Amino acid sequence: MLSADKIRLLKKSCWLILHTVIIVNFVAEILYGFYQVFFVLVPPGGKKGPLMGRAGEIPFELMVKRRLFATETWIAISGLAVYLAVIYKEKFKGFSRHGR
User: Which parts of 1-100 fold into alpha helices (H)?
Assistant: First the structure.
């Protein structure tokens, strides 16, 4: 039979693994979105990276795909920020200007 300390350590380890998997999932989604927008969905004959002045010259379907991936990336960034703020709020209390 496991002692109370071992059970507590096991629970803590499981929670740490779960939090790590969630954070890695968010980071992977963010990197995938950036990769799709800036390196895969490039205009025909164009170069990789941001469109800048060429945004008006690309086909509508490509623009919609890029915007959908960009939106997905921003949702992942927002989700990660909210997750970190909720889960680690005690650790972030020292960063407040008002010290609350």
Answer: 4-35, 60-87, 89-92
Cα separations (Å) of 5 from 9, 39, 60, 71, 80? 6, 50, 60, 45, 32
Burial of residue 85, with CB atoms counted within 10 A of its CB: 0-12 exposed, 13-18 middle, 19 or more buried:
exposed
pLDDT tens digits along 22-64 = 999 999 999 999 999 999 998 888 788 888 877 788 899 999 9
Contact (CB, 8 A) for 69 and 33: yes
How many CB atoms are closer than 10 A to CB 66? 20
Q: Which two tokens stand for residue 14?
A: 């499981």
Among residues 87, 75, 94, 92, the alpha carbon closest in space to that of 33 is found at 75
* Locus of tokens 């496991």: 2
Model pTM score: 0.80
Amino acid identity, position 61: E
